[in-house]
Structure prediction request, 232 residues.
Amino acid sequence: MHQKRLSAPKTYKVPRKIFKWVVKPSPGPHDGSAVPLLIVVRDYLKLADSAREARRIIASGEILVDGIPRKDYKFPIGLFDVVKIPKLNKSYRIVFDEKGRFVPIEVEDDNLKLYKIVNKTTIRGGRIQLNLFDGTNIIGDNSYKTKDSILLKIPDRVVVDRLPFEVGALVMITGGTHAGEIGKIKEYKVVRSSSPNLVTVDVGGRDITTIVDYVFVVGKKEDKKPVIDLGV
Prediction:
């Protein structure tokens, strides 16, 4: 299935007016902002000159996403996903550019990925299941809180560290006009209404207030840089 380029999510970094249609991602990880793997291979990484060539590369299993070969050219790619091309010995992490569009940056820490905990559920046997931002679920315990982030080894999803959501934590804004900006949490305000709670982030001396859903913890209080390579 395709969609019109002009109506594609703003995270797509593709020409909008040269061609009418663009590939639409399959249902799967991430939300509606995800881009299909074909666009990453052809338009972002320039590994192919055409959609046909990109589909052939992907179908051959030469592209790994978070350590797993993906052969569906519509497979959805989103924030912090790691795209690896073993034949070229290159790995890329998906981040935001200055306009809030997804772009790949070359990284060496391709065995790590950050996940935001968006919910917790109790499953059979009284075990705690952590529901993560991209649709992934893992087993945890009650020491993990929603809005925290966890650092996992991929592809086996072993927990390396927990990054608490708290005042002073290093965060990335992931939505709105400030998507991609990184700073420290200055204030967390619980709104006593149906409106979302608010977070004020100190970004280089500027206070930016956004909704809590747009805040992703990328480092602890003591960290000056994100715990994974985000190109900053």
Observations:
- The CA atoms of residues 198 and 211 lie 5 Å apart.
